[in-house]
Design a protein that fits this description.
The protein is of the alpha/beta class. The protein has two domains: about 1-70, no CATH class; about 80-190, Zincin-like, CATH 3.30.2010. About 45% of the residues lie in helices and about 20% in strands. It has helices at about 45-50, 50-70, 80-100, 135-145, 155-165, 170-185, 185-190, and strands spanning about 1-5, 10-20, 25-30, 30-40, 105-110, 115, 120-125. The strands form two sheets. The chain has a four-stranded mixed sheet with strand order 1-2-4-3. A three-stranded mixed sheet has the order 5-7-6, with helices on one face. α2 (about 50-70) packs across α6 (about 170-185) and α3 packs across α4. The radius of gyration is 18 Å and the shape is globular.
Length: about 190
């Protein structure tokens, strides 16, 4: 079910997605607000109202990222083999630094994230990452490997990230900007 809500100067389209979850959560995907809610959840208007500032801020951040993406150039000089070799070297380096072991590394095209890490120690890297600057690739590999210490985005997780990347908030913004650049360039594949 899709609905709309006016928040300041924004008309926000949102949908409620019932799932087998214990707690609700808000996420923004493809310019829409999604409320993932337990089956039978009825208070979606209260949740939207309570989180108006967060929703507005997130939509404005996306708008800024989308505009800044037009200034970014993707790097088409790195070949797939070079990219995979770079990832494997970074995984070796960070395995020692973080004292963790990676089971397997997977490469695939992902539509909504740069990478993931499973509880089994498997790292999945988005193939579109190969078009980004090396410092962002390095950050992302470290980020995913830090999940081998903390599977969530808790304070402890961000402390690990901060230990190597004290400017991680700016890097996260850059990744967001590049995400829009990748989506624009590869729109036929991603959308």
């Amino acid at each position: 079910m899709q609905s709309r809500v006016k928040i300041h100067d924004l008309e926000v389209v949102y949908e409620i997605i019932p799932r087998e979850v214990k707690y609700w959560r808000l996420e923004i995907k493809d310019g829409k607000l999604r409320l993932i809610a337990p089956q039978g959840f009825k208070n979606h208007e209260k949740i939207i109202e309570r989180h108006r500032k967060w929703i507005y801020r997130k939509f404005k951040e996306d708008e800024i990222s989308r505009n800044r993406a037009k200034e970014k150039k993707l790097d088409f000089n790195r070949g797939e083999n070079d990219f995979k070799q770079l990832i494997q070297e970074l995984v070796r380096e960070f395995s020692i630094e973080l004292d963790v072991g990676v089971n397997r590394i997977y490469f695939r095209r992902m539509k909504s994230r740069w990478g993931s890490c499973s509880s089994k120690g498997n790292i999945t890297i988005n193939r579109y990452l190969m078009y980004l600057p090396e410092n962002l690739i390095e950050y992302l590999v470290f980020h995913e490997m830090a999940h081998l210490l903390e599977l969530n985005h808790s304070k402890k997780f961000w402390d690990v990230i901060y230990s190597k990347f004290p400017d991680y908030k700016e890097i996260e913004k850059e990744l967001s900007i590049y995400w829009f650049a990748v989506k624009e360039t590869f729109s036929d594949e991603i959308n």
